[in-house]
Amino acid sequence: MKRAGTLRLLSDLSAFGGAARLRELLAGDPAVRVRGSPDGRHLLLLRPPGAVAPQLLVAARGPGAELERTWPAGQPSPLDAFFLPWPARPALVLVWESGLAEVWGAGVGPGWRLLQSTELCPGGGARVVAVVALRGRLVWCEERQAGSEGPLGPPATAFSHCVCVRTLEPSGEASTSLGRTHVLLHHCPAFGLLASCRHLFLVPTATTWHGVAHVLLIWSPGKGKVMVAAPRLGLSYSKSLNPGRGDTWDFRTLLRGLPGLLSPREPLAVHTWAPTPHGLLLLDFGGTVSLVQSHGGTRAVGILQEAPVGPRGSATLGTFQGTLACVLGSTLELLDMGSGQLLERKVLSTDRVHLLEPPAPGMEDEEELETGGSLRLLSALGLFCVGWEAPQGVELPSAKDLVFEEACGYYQRRSLRGAQLTPEELRHSSTFRAPQALASILQGHLPPSTLLTMLRTELRDYRGLEQLKAQLVAGDDEEAGWTELAEQEVARLLRTELIGDQLAQLNTVFQALPTAAWGATLRALQLQPDGNGKLRSQAPPDVWKKVLGGITTVKEPPNGILPPFELLCQCLCQLEPRWLPPFVELAQQQGGPGWGAGGPGLPLYRRALAVLGEEGTRPEALELELLLSSGRPKAVLQAVGQLVQKEQWDRALDAGLALGPSSPLVRSEIFKLLLAEFAQHRQLDAHLPLLCRLCPPELAPAELLLLLRTYLPDEVGPPTPFPEPGAEPPLTVGLLKALLEQTGAQGWPSGPVLSPYEDILWDPSTPPPTPPRDL
């Protein structure tokens, strides 16, 4: 049965702030650029330079701040503006032809606020001709000063452009993080830039030199590759282009190394370009629509009933549910993407229609969740969605029926009985109450909109995950897709109770994609280095409670499943071992009763050491750092003992001096340990000032001498005035002077004299005269 296309009104724009101004701009200026935010709640309208005020309008649906900006005559207006896919708050970036870029955000104060301003072309003398935002990156094409004539014989300005990229990500509540600029292409022509969800398309423009105007490029950041394609020649070549590895290309060198691309060919005569998740759509002046796929191949999609007659770029192209939608003037044509057959043709009541990008996965609101897979069109009359009606005679199951069918499969998988469980049994049995409760809610006890509001976050998460999984199962195995899947899964699991299946799933993700899993944990714990080699965190206590909990009392974890803390330590050992001690030190500061830090069970440093392996097989340097940073007396003494064995005297002394006044006993034990070494050999003589600082202030000179006497090596023969050649020099009074002065630095003791020689140490005058000798 033939499907029927529907054009349904979603909103008459009255729900948006400044609805009257919004309708006025949409109806009055055909050249206005319209963009929708990733969450579907904001609309951005940017008028071309020279238009009347306002030139920028950002309208919010429901409660939300508006933004209106106008640039006076003589002052340039932005070249383009884009929403940024930041989940925490709405944000947009404005880019000027001069290279100035401004990032604005809402939700961090009253109204919209300028978060950061930067120069994309700090050297001066460059002009931005095209810009696009692509998944946390800002990509632009800039014109630089022309050099000498190229080897291909074009004018000097033909290859005076370059394409640059820069990461742009949120940082904290009210700031942004801009990466360094990386040049993707040198000496290239003027390219137009278009972006889909995963690819960047570099297309020729009217000013591109005709000798290369038949070539376009497709950059896939997730794969680290660029595809050079000539659709009219049927040629495509793949090259590596990964900014993370420092890849860059000279455009002229790139083309010379690809056979056949420089064959004489007419430039691409394209009326309208349109990026889609399937590839790049192009509409020529004859009405033929073609699709350039991400691998560089080109196929015809279909031919429209009428050819475009308006200026370049005035048509609107989009895809939904295997259907191509094209708006030409006031006509909407729907074509089957597979066969090219015309499915439906509608006449609209206006000729000024704009296509809105679909919301980002997981960021849809109630309307998008109900009309998933449809195409959104915006005009002065309102916001519409284009979709397909279900064929008549097909009865869709009710939500209540779906609940019992899903619950039936769920309970059957966990049932031990052999009999088959049926939905009817679930309806009337009093054993399974959860599906009955949910069915009663869906039956009308709660309005659907209220239920969607209650489950909005969960629906977004699960919908986004399922869509991403479906893309990967379909064969898109690019690294970025797997990374995003792992990050979303870890973020979801950290919001659950990490026991049983959830903990096993977390272990699986960390084993399969440790880098992506650690990145998600980094954001969840809000870890940042403080510049002194330590870490700080702004995560709430509930998150740390989940990470530090799950203490295991057995030596070997069941089935190899590690608790969250041990799992993170193991991941850090693989990726960044130097950050393991600061992480454990920070975790010890976060613990509460029963969390695994400051509560019953093993201390966190012992749990981290267990991850490193059995004693004797652990990396020595990492084990030492863990022991020293733990702050535990036994651990510090153990570490100092190892340092003494390695004869690393500086580190041993620093470890003792790092202990504060609250640990006098540990400092005293470290001092005695080092004093024993000082008494037996002379390797500590150069470090005597530090040893004096470590000396306990309450230690009396007599006690020091008694300690030294116990540590002195036994004499094997009669004393001699000088040591034997090659023997270790003995301890002398001169070496002891600094230590004895340190113990006596507090003044004459108030108690009785403990030694007949102690008054010599306390007498500041000259020594007594020598008694007369008998002649």
TrEMBL record:
Query: Keywords, A to Z?
Result: Cytoplasm, Endoplasmic reticulum, Endosome, Membrane, Microsome
GO terms for cellular component = BLOC-2 complex; cytosol; early endosome membrane; endoplasmic reticulum; lysosomal membrane; nucleoplasm
Q: Name one GO molecular function term.
A: small GTPase binding
Primary location class = membrane
Question: Which residue numbers delimit the BLOC-2 complex member HPS6 N-terminal domain?
Answer: 1-385
Could you tell me where this protein is found in the cell?
Microsome membrane
* GO biological process terms, semicolon-separated: blood coagulation; lipid homeostasis; lipid metabolic process; lysosome localization; pigmentation; protein localization to membrane; protein secretion
BLOC-2 complex member HPS6 C-terminal domain residues are 401-773
Q: What does this protein do?
A: May regulate the synthesis and function of lysosomes and of highly specialized organelles, such as melanosomes and platelet dense granules.
The subunit structure is: Component of the biogenesis of lysosome-related organelles complex-2 (or BLOC2) composed of HPS3, HPS5 and HPS6. Interacts with HPS5 and HPS3. Interacts with biogenesis of lysosome-related organelles complex-1 (BLOC1). Interacts with AP-3 complex.
The protein depicted here goes by the name Hermansky-Pudlak syndrome 6 protein homolog
